Amino acid sequence: MKKHFFLVAIFVIPLTTLGYELKVVINNVKSDQGNIWIELLDVNKDSFKDTKIRAQEGVSIMSFKGLPEGKYAVRLFHDENVNDELDTNFIGIPKEGYGFSNDAHGRFGPYDFKKWLIEVKKDETIQVNLEYL
């Protein structure tokens, strides 16, 4: 009996803890300068994971792996000058490229958070188009 449980623990438990992959394809990257900061938020708007990748002109790709099933939102920005923050002008309009899951944008700031949400219940790939003003 102990050997059987041990085999189940080795082969079954790791498979159930792997989770899903969310691949984020970032389009319209203006240049190779700097980094792209990407934040994954859970359904409660809490930061679930965040990371940065080196910017690649045109298209940059990154993945979040091992995600449990659920609803998530992505927000990101192109940190061209590598100061680790989204630069804005004196009235708060971004001077660097930014984007949200589902390409959600509003007239004055981002759309309602619910419009950012994507459901992950299998491996998913989403597209986010950076917007530069």
Describe the structure.
It is a single chain. The chain is mainly β and 133 residues long. The protein has a single domain, classed as Sandwich (Immunoglobulin-like). The chain is built from two helices and eight strands; from the N terminus they run ααββββββββ. The strands form two sheets. Strands 2, 3, 5, 6 and 7 form a five-stranded antiparallel sheet that branches. The protein has a three-stranded mixed sheet with strand order 4-1-8, with no helix packed on it. It is globular. The N and C termini lie far apart (65 Å). The relative contact order is 0.24.
Keyword list:
133 residues; Immunoglobulin-like; 8 strands; three-stranded mixed beta sheet; disordered N terminus; globular; 2 helices; five-stranded antiparallel beta sheet; mainly beta
Q: How would you concisely characterize the structure shown here?
A:
By secondary structure, the protein is mainly beta.
The CATH topology turns out to be Immunoglobulin-like
The succession of helices and strands, N to C, reads: HHEEEEEEEE
Percentage of residues in DSSP E strands: 35-45%
Arithmetic mean pLDDT: 88
Tell me the total number of β-strands: 8
Q: What structural class do helix, strand and pairing data support?
A: mainly beta
Radius of gyration: 18 Å
Sheet having the most strands: 5 strands, antiparallel
CATH-derived architecture:
Sandwich
Q: Tally the structural domains.
A: 1
Give the uncertain stretches in residue-range form: 1-10
Total helix count?
2
For the terminal residues, how far apart are their CA atoms? 65 Å
* Name of the CATH class: Mainly Beta
Helix content: 10-25%
User: What spatial form do the alpha-carbon principal axes imply?
Assistant: globular
